[in-house]
Amino acid sequence: MPAEAARRLVVGRLRKPHGLKGDCAVFPLTDSPEEVFQPGRRLWMVDVGGHEVGEALTVERGRGYHREWLLKFVGVDSRSALEALPALRGVFVAADAAELTPPAEDEVYTHELVGFSVRATDGTPIGVVSEFYDLPSGLTLEVQGPKREFLLPYRQEFVQEVDRDTRQLTVTLPEGLID
């Protein structure tokens, strides 16, 4: 029987190459990027549907840069080597959940939602939940799409189904939300 695949959580969205020495700008989708993007951490590129794209990358170095993080991966020593990676733009990076600090006792529900794939009722991938906000109008999800993020109210008329086993939300988007 094959070994069970490690559970991975999306921790960032790859943005673009930075400079000539192989650094990549990453928009962090975690509250602790300094912990997640530390040297030696293995990251997997995943598409908007949560499927792996290419081989695992190991962080050689990382540092905060404005709202983003600049990451240099082991063996990726030039801009051209970085650009040669499959599907560099529009993908996310994920880390093994077992290697990340578990959420505090009062953050279990957040932990379940963050990293969920968001799909339309017809199965079309829309994005990945990166955060939630408890606003006066109710719980609101921040969803990272392939090009930008958007806010989705966590209400029965929009969230049709929650599947914890596949870590997927099936939603009906309000008209004009991502147009």
How would you describe this structure to a colleague?
This protein folds into 2 domains: 8-99, Elongation Factor Tu (Ef-tu), domain 3 (Beta Barrel), CATH 2.40.30; 105-171, Roll (SH3 type barrels), CATH 2.30.30. The protein is 8% helix and 44% strand. The protein contains 3 helices and 12 strands, in the order E-E-H-E-E-E-H-E-H-E-E-E-E-E-E. The strands form 2 sheets. A 6-stranded antiparallel barrel has the order 1-2-5-4-3-6. The chain has a 6-stranded mixed β-sheet with strand order 10-9-8-7-12-11, with no helix packed on it. Strand 7 and strand 8 form a beta hairpin. The protein is elongated, with a radius of gyration of 16 Å.
Percentage of residues in strands? 35-45%
Number of spatially distinct domains: 2
Largest sheet: 6 strands, antiparallel, barrel
How much helical structure, as a percent, in the residues? Answer: under 10%
Instruction: Tell me the structural class.
Output: mainly beta
What is the number of helical segments per DSSP (H or I, 4+ residues)?
3
- pLDDT under 50 segments (min length 5)? 105-109
Strands in their spatial order, largest beta sheet: 1-2-5-4-3-6
Relevant CATH superfamily of the largest domain: RimM
Mind telling me which CATH architecture of the largest domain this is?
A: Beta Barrel
CATH topology of the largest domain: Elongation Factor Tu (Ef-tu), domain 3
Provide the gyration radius in Å: 16 Å
Q: How far do the termini sit from each other? A: 45 Å
Class of the largest domain in CATH? Answer: Mainly Beta
Helix/strand order, N-terminal first: EEHEEEHEHEEEEEE
The strand count comes to: 12
Mean pLDDT comes to 85
